[in-house]
Amino acid sequence: MLFKELRQLLAQLKTEITCPNCKRHYEESEMMIAGAINDEAILHLTCSECRSQAIVTAVINRYRENRRHKGLKVRNFEKPMFKEVTSSDVMDIHNFLENFEGDFKTIFS
Q1: Cα atoms found within 13 Å of the Cα of residue 11, Cβ hemisphere only
Q2: Which is nearest to 33 in space by CA: 1, 63, 65, 80?
Q3: Using CA atoms, how far apart are residues 62 and 77, in angstroms rounded to an integer?
């Protein structure tokens, strides 16, 4: 994806996409590009007003007459995307790694 196309996509998202929770338009500073490859992009949006999070997937159409992205949709996450790491979580992984000998095949089989 070309930088120019990515900038156009962000500009369009600012005008057409609203937070699913509070209906406020997103600012560019609230859009994080999680990844982009070829003609596809994945963005993580966080509303600074209500802290709601959303994921946007987009495909760039390089045909000039169809360049406008139609039917944009936002998936709402009711709860925060990531849970807080507790001290118990840290101790669990510490205890696991203390005896781990590097055999991933056994763990995942």
Answers
A1: 7
A2: 1
A3: 30
Residue type, 92: D
For the segment 28-64, what is each residue's pLDDT rounded down to a tens digit?
A: 899 998 888 888 889 999 999 999 998 988 877 665 5
Q: Report the distance separating Cα 51 and Cα 77, nearest Å.
A: 10
Q: 77-92: per-residue pLDDT in tens?
A: 556 656 788 999 999 9
- CA distances to 21, 78, 90, 91, 92 from 86, rounded to whole Å, are 28, 21, 7, 9, 10
At residue 1, the pLDDT reads 54
